Automatic annotation (TrEMBL):
It is a peripheral membrane protein. It is an enzyme of class 7 (translocase). This is NADH-quinone oxidoreductase subunit I. [4Fe-4S] cluster 1 binds at residues 75, 78, 81, 131. NDH-1 shuttles electrons from NADH, via FMN and iron-sulfur (Fe-S) centers, to quinones in the respiratory chain. The immediate electron acceptor for the enzyme in this species is believed to be ubiquinone. Couples the redox reaction to proton translocation (for every two electrons transferred, four hydrogen ions are translocated across the cytoplasmic membrane), and thus conserves the redox energy in a proton gradient. One of its GO terms (molecular function) is 4 iron, 4 sulfur cluster binding. Residues 66-95, 112-141 form the 4Fe-4S ferredoxin-type domain. Its main location: membrane. NDH-1 is composed of 14 different subunits. Subunits NuoA, H, J, K, L, M, N constitute the membrane sector of the complex. It catalyses: a quinone + NADH + 5 H(+)(in) = a quinol + NAD(+) + 4 H(+)(out).
């Protein structure tokens, strides 16, 4: 069954002498590059990283683990986000809340460790959709540039929002989500 009209039939024909040389194709490619270099950029140019291109509020960037209105962490370490994640980027360890920790964690169970491997993440947003506690959202922030692979594993220190620096995610929420958040 044909699934698309855009598929190309692969040709196994023998290459000609000119094709085997590769040079004509290389020059053709360089000519295209030169043409674009002379024509200059189309549209506005941003001198990144000093000047960043504006991003929409519903940009799927760096995650945030949300707190509730009393400042308690929302995540209950149910693991649904990790199960849903197609890139297997999320890992966590659950712990039981003690009486003294009721002001820190909203639910009886919480994530003592919560990590996202940003090198694996494809920013699909499925973790956000799977979460029953409105605890995880993607934001318009970018993942930092790092120089070693280990630094791309983001823990709670980078993911949980700061009490005094709340991140507004209302633009990302559907009307149903807004109504269901308790
Ligand atoms: S955005 Fe997608 S890939 Fe990234 S952690 Fe969430 S579910 Fe996994
Ligand atoms: S972020 Fe949401 S889905 Fe993931 S473990 Fe926490 S409560 Fe469960």
């Amino acid at each position: 069954m044909k699934l698309t009209n855009r598929s190309k039939v692969v040709s196994n024909k023998e290459m000609t002498f000119m094709e085997k040389l590769y040079l004509p194709e290389i020059f053709k490619g360089m000519a295209i590059t030169l043409k674009h270099a002379i024509a200059g950029p189309k549209g506005k140019v941003y001198s990144y990283p000093e000047v960043q291109k504006p991003r929409t509020k519903i940009w799927r960037g760096l995650h945030v683990l949300k707190r509730d209105e009393e400042g308690r962490e929302r995540c209950t370490a149910c693991g649904l986000c990790a199960v849903t994640c197609p890139a297997e980027a999320i890992t966590m360890t659950g712990a039981e809340r003690t009486k003294d920790e009721q002001h820190l964690y909203r639910e009886e169970k919480y994530a003592s460790v919560y990590e996202i491997n940003m090198l694996r993440c494809i920013f699909c947003g499925l973790c956000e959709e799977a979460c029953p506690k409105s605890a995880i959202y993607l934001t318009d922030r970018l993942v930092d540039v790092e120089t070693n692979r280990g630094s791309f594993i983001y823990g709670k220190d980078k993911l949980v929002e700061k009490i005094n620096e709340r991140i507004d995610i209302t633009e990302r929420q559907s009307e149903l989500q807004k109504k269901s958040v308790k």
